[in-house]
Design goal:
This protein has about 230 residues and is of the alpha/beta class. The chain contains ten helices and six strands; from the N terminus they run βαααααβαβααβαββα. β2 (about 125-130), α6 and β3 form a beta-alpha-beta unit.
């Protein structure tokens, strides 16, 4: 079923277009090699990924700062792995990781194909909770910045998804209306609930296949967007 009266499409970036899991693993491999960290990357990631997820959830809810997120997710992961690292080493790793992350720019399957397809008929935009200094590098280095008319980050807006103020800021920046817009993202609360609270129709990208019964449009691959748009 094609959706009518849509002129603007807002995308999340990480886990929606940009392959965060793969790129993050490559960045940590490089950091660990540079810092001579004697941990198997897969063992580390098995612990780190759920810890990181919880820290981002707390960050969205304004329970931790950006600095506390960057430090705490590493400190907690190392503690669980019983790897001793002092504060200076953890801070160095955190800085290295953020520096190296946008150097790896694998996209999720179908990203460029879908962007090419949608770009012909719609204005495309980004709304992201990711850090300002990193997200623009990801878009530029992966070669997809050319598709987007506007990019709205949570640091620029002063609030994070799902706060409706970031969606209102993105609408104003793009001269779009809620009725003429769609939001596509992988985080149900941040992207879908947040968009709905602002009057924007959401499409949930169920990338991890975690949700079966949901009451919004949803896709499991990016190419499925052609069903709706």
């Amino acid at each position: 079923m094609k959706l009518g009266n849509i002129n603007h499409i807002f995308f999340d970036l990480d886990h929606t277009l940009w392959d965060f899991d793969r790129n993050s693993a490559l960045a940590f491999e490089r950091v660990f090699k540079f810092r001579n960290i004697p941990l198997e990357i897969n063992d580390f990631l098995e612990i780190y990924m759920p810890v990181n997820f919880k820290y981002w959830e707390r960050y969205r809810n304004d329970q931790v700062t950006k600095e506390a997120l960057r430090y705490g997710r590493l400190k907690d992961s190392f503690d669980l792995l019983k790897f001793e690292a002092d504060k200076d080493l953890i801070n160095d790793i955190a800085i290295d990781y953020i520096e190296y992350l946008p150097d790896h720019n694998h996209l999720l399957d179908g990203s460029k194909e879908v962007l090419d397809y949608l770009h012909k008929s719609y204005e495309l935009h980004i709304i992201t909770n990711g850090f300002e200094e990193v997200q623009h590098k990801k878009l530029n280095n992966s070669g997809i910045s050319k598709y987007f008319t506007t990019i709205t980050t949570s640091e620029e807006a002063g609030v994070k998804k799902p706060n409706k103020l970031i969606f209102e800021a993105a609408l104003k920046k793009s001269s779009a209306t809620p009725e003429s817009s769609i939001m596509i993202g992988d985080n149900f609360e941040a992207d879908c609930t947040g968009a709905q609270n602002c009057g924007i129709k959401p499409i949930f990208f169920d990338y991890y296949g975690n949700k079966e019964n949901i009451d919004v449009m949803h896709i499991k691959t990016l190419n499925e967007l052609k069903t709706y748009l």
